[in-house]
């Protein structure tokens, strides 16, 4: 009853005209950004952070806008997957397998509408999972001391590569780079400048919002400048008919068991630190194919092959918010960006968030329910409109992204030095993407590096320099064990998972 009462208070916060308008705006912008190949939820949220701060929004309205963008981008990623066979982002990759064949059969509208319904089901029940699980996780988190927090942060870095990641070594390098960047500035305990090279502007450290916008948004502009001859609008001209935009009841009925199973699978994948929506999407599709694909129709336009990954990746999106809100450890790349927003608003995610800022956290959760309904209402009737987004040439889109980035960051800090740092991070992001080094561990290092260091120092101070204090409780031992397994397991399983994902895509293309 206490949870329902808190959720009711959250709806009182969310159901204001301003917050409803921001949720609607976030859903629209998120769907558009998700539809554009390559942008995805992380980039979409990163691009709009400066807008939220430039508008002078408070904590709750900013989070409502950006989480609506997050959920909207998860919906929108399926549009280019189904129509063009180009995933809008990595989690939407599995939707290509059956969505594109459905579109080739003249059932693009049905595939898009079905994926909208599946996305709604996954996100709706995952939000209920967030409501029920996060407060329980908070009770466990109150047992945490400095040693346990250090082990928890280590777990976050160890597992962030994920099973579907290209290379654990590259993920570890990215995390080390992020931790190194976090060390820049004046040491809080000794007052000694570190890695500032005499530059006064670096005494306060690197602003993580500058790093995020540079690494995600500006690097996207540099990637476009490198490949500017490719234009998605050419791929869509006269190529695809939408057909009917509402799925039949028999199609929906056949997909209901699929949606139920993959909601659970996706939510579990989202809650696990570092697994995220990509793994949720892949596991949902693979398990469902083994369970129900008796006639070998998966990969040839089976509606269940669209419903499974879409339900799974949206359930994972909701699940990833659980560790972010309850423990202060992001469960995915996009929640790492949202964690940065919370910190920029002087709100500390973790066990005390539900006590100190109940209006923010419950208002946000209520807004997720509202945003889901809005997305369902928007996505099915407006399928035709959202598909027109794919006709926007990148030569128009990318200058807008660059303009928002520069104006937004200058509006936040008023410092031209920060603009130069942002450009530097943009170039760094571009180089790392060419080398296939993930960007999210860098952001996590910048965000959590100082907290990780201060907890390590505190634990060692309490124990008078005894390093065994880091493994002195059952909780810290459990976290260290999960961290080691989470880092080592993908080295052995990751190659097999990626090979299976690639072979399934190749089979689909061959058919």
From TrEMBL:
Keywords: Membrane, Transmembrane, Transmembrane helix. InterPro entries: DUF112_TM (IPR002823). It holds the Pfam family TctA. The keyword Transmembrane applies. The keyword Membrane applies. The chain crosses the membrane at residues 20-39, 45-71, 111-134, 140-162, 169-186, 206-225, 263-285, 324-348, 360-380, 392-412, 419-447, 467-493. PANTHER family: TRICARBOXYLIC TRANSPORT PROTEIN. This is Tricarboxylic transport membrane protein. The lineage of its organism: Bacteria, Pseudomonadati, Pseudomonadota, Alphaproteobacteria, Rhodobacterales.
